[in-house]
Amino acid sequence: DIRNDLYLTLERGDFERGGKSVQKNIEVTVYVLYADGEILKECISLGSGEPPLPEHRSFVLYHNNSPRWSEVIKLPIPVDRFRGSHLRFEFRHCSTKDKGEKKLFGFSFTPLMREDGTTLSDESHELYVYKCDENTLFSNHALYLGLPCCKEDFNSCSSLPSSLVFQRSAKENFWIQTQLSSTKLTQNVDLLALLKWKAHPDRVMDILGRLRHVSGEEIVK
């Protein structure tokens, strides 16, 4: 049986008050987007028997700039659409005075796969928050995909454009946790190299040695 399910937990966030006298009522909207920017229409599941959704909206905590959601959703993303795809998280303040009014003030994102072909690791990820407003158009996703999504991504960026369309909010951060259950993809770069051994047959023994060393450490743990 083929399986490729990514379990995503919306953990928490730290957001600025933004000049308001009270704290915000923050809602997170989650999207899965293909490499071409198309939103994956039926790839978010809230549980067994629930119909697939094109997006997920978190619950809202009243006047809380440091919300803790701990919401878990399932993303059954097709294997052939995994590479190049990314997650986008949009943050909105939900007004209590004007019922139904939601103002976009920021977003975060993360690719599902790294350049070496491995997937997001099974751990907590601290993502950057970029400022934007309700008039922001995400039709050209390349405008933000060239930016670092987290600290590790920033350290690997060779250079950034002098004038950025989106500015990072230095005092705001967003945390997610991911766990992948897949029969096709892996987070282990050595296992990935072993699966592609025909490309570099001379490296097989070295790769096997590293895998044996990792397996031994896991047994000790």
TrEMBL record:
In this chain the C2 DOCK-type domain maps to 3-181
Q: Which Pfam families match?
A: DOCK-C2
What cellular component GO annotations does this protein have? cytoplasm; plasma membrane
A GO biological process of this protein is: small GTPase-mediated signal transduction
Q: Which GO terms describe its molecular function?
A: guanyl-nucleotide exchange factor activity; small GTPase binding
List the PANTHER family hit by this protein, alphabetically: DEDICATOR OF CYTOKINESIS, DEDICATOR OF CYTOKINESIS PROTEIN 3
Indicate the family of this protein.
Belongs to the DOCK family.
State the name under which the record lists this protein: Dedicator of cytokinesis protein 3-like
Native source organism of the sequence = Notothenia coriiceps (black rockcod)
Tell me the gene name: LOC104953956
